[in-house]
Design brief:
Shape: globular
Distance between the termini: 37 Å
Oligomer: single chain
Number of strands: 10
Number of helices: 3
Strand content: 25-35%
Order of helices and strands: EHEEHEEEHEEEE
């Protein structure tokens, strides 16, 4: 018998940009243009996102406080994903050649909110990207990348439920 997520003592949380269906479809189309090795682990379409802050395991009783305290001022912006790379460790990503200043500003406002909530930060800097696959050693990105324009209209607090079948659950969207 599996337990409900709320019966678990902690939740694995992150703050991220959650694509709309058009951006998700474009990311999937881009993912399909790569030449993948046999043992690749492709990120499923419903898990494609851009992480801003990874919070790790957070006690469930803190979730309402976080969901309330992470509401920061936000201006919509355009994000262009136009650089396909394979990083060390076999992670295949799509990222912006030039991250927009508004993305860095959002990251910093969220950092300040997390510090004000006494929530430990898991990383010190933002390296914006969408992970397309893991175990992608030897993968070949497309020779030409059709830029994906993402009109960012908000961000979300998201739970990563690791129990099979693992999935993401949006706790709260911020617009």
């Amino acid at each position: 018998m599996t337990s409900a997520p709320d019966s678990e003592p902690s939740a694995r949380l992150f703050i991220g940009l959650w694509p709309d269906e058009a951006v998700r479809a474009a990311l999937l189309a881009h993912q399909q243009q790569w030449v993948w090795p046999q043992r690749v682990a492709l990120v499923s379409p419903d898990r494609l996102h851009l992480t801003l802050h990874f919070l790790g395991d957070v006690p469930r009783p803190r979730m309402p406080e976080l969901a309330q305290g992470l509401a920061v001022s936000f201006e919509r912006f355009d994000l262009q994903l136009d650089l396909a790379e394979r990083w060390a460790g076999g992670v295949a990503v799509l990222q912006p050649v030039v991250p927009p200043l508004a993305l860095a500003a959002l990251y910093e406002r969220l950092r300040a909110a997390l510090e004000g909530l006494h929530q430990p930060l898991q990383r010190e800097s933002l390296r914006p990207h969408v992970t397309l696959a893991r175990h992608a050693q030897g993968a070949l990105p497309p020779q030409r990348v059709a830029p994906i324009r993402w009109r960012v209209k908000g961000y979300a607090l998201i739970e990563s439920d690791r129990r099979p079948p693992s999935h993401y659950r949006v706790i709260r969207s911020f617009r």
